[in-house]
């Protein structure tokens, strides 16, 4: 199966890329939006995931990968919620800002722009390559 690409959003004051790297990965929990939950459930081991700092920074800061496919969210007190395990791959040499994304023809249709409330969203192959280029990294 082909690799899929994703973007996860996180407030850096709550859990930053640096925290993620220091922890060598994490369980991506606390998602309480059905569309984002369904995106988590569609992730496969080995899929690549952009780590986006939301709120004040609004920029893609790193690349992660899915280390473990979805399972029940142990932090959920009620409802049918899921988590995945993510591991860091590498930091962006140049963070890719939301302003850059909005003005880029290839990236302007990302769910990050069209549906900014989603904390987990898909990224197309061409969009993935474009963000890598802007971030000055390769995989």
Detailed description of the structure:
With 139 residues, this protein is an alpha+beta fold. 27% of the residues lie in helices and 35% in strands. The protein has 5 helices and 6 strands; from the N terminus they run βαβαβββααβα. The chain has helices spanning 17-23, 34-42, 98-103, 111-114, 125-135; strands at 5-10, 26-28, 48-53, 59-72, 82-97, 120-123.
Give the tags:
139 residues, alpha+beta, 6-stranded mixed β-sheet, 5 helices
| Strand order of the biggest β-sheet | 2-5-4-3-1-6
**What is the average of the pLDDT values?**
97
The number of helices is: 5
- Beta-strand fraction estimate: 35-45%
Percent helix, as a range, is: 25-40%
Count the E strands: 6
Overall shape = globular
Distance between the termini: 18 Å
Q: Can you summarize the main beta sheet?
A: 6 strands, mixed
Write a compact overview of the structure shown.
The protein is of the alpha+beta class.
Which SSEs are present, and which pair or pack?
Layout (H helix, E strand, L loop, with lengths): L4 E6 L6 H7 L2 E3 L5 H9 L5 E6 L5 E14 L9 E16 H6 L7 H4 L5 E4 L1 H11 L4
Parallel strand pairs: 1-3
Antiparallel strand pairs: 1-6, 2-5, 3-4, 4-5
């Amino acid at each position: 199966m082909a690799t899929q690409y994703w973007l996860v959003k996180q407030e850096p004051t709550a859990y930053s890329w640096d925290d993620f790297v220091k922890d060598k990965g994490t369980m991506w929990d606390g998602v309480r939006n059905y569309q984002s939950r369904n995106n988590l459930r569609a992730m496969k081991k080995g899929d690549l995931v952009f780590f986006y700092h939301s709120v004040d920074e609004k920029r893609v800061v790193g690349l992660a990968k899915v280390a473990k496919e979805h399972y029940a969210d142990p932090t959920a007190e009620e409802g049918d919620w899921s988590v995945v395990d993510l591991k860091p791959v590498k930091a962006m040499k140049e963070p890719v800002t939301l302003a850059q994304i909005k003005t880029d023809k290839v990236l302007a249709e990302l769910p990050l722009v069209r549906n900014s409330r989603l904390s987990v969203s898909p990224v197309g192959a061409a969009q993935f390559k474009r963000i890598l280029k802007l971030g000055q990294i390769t995989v």
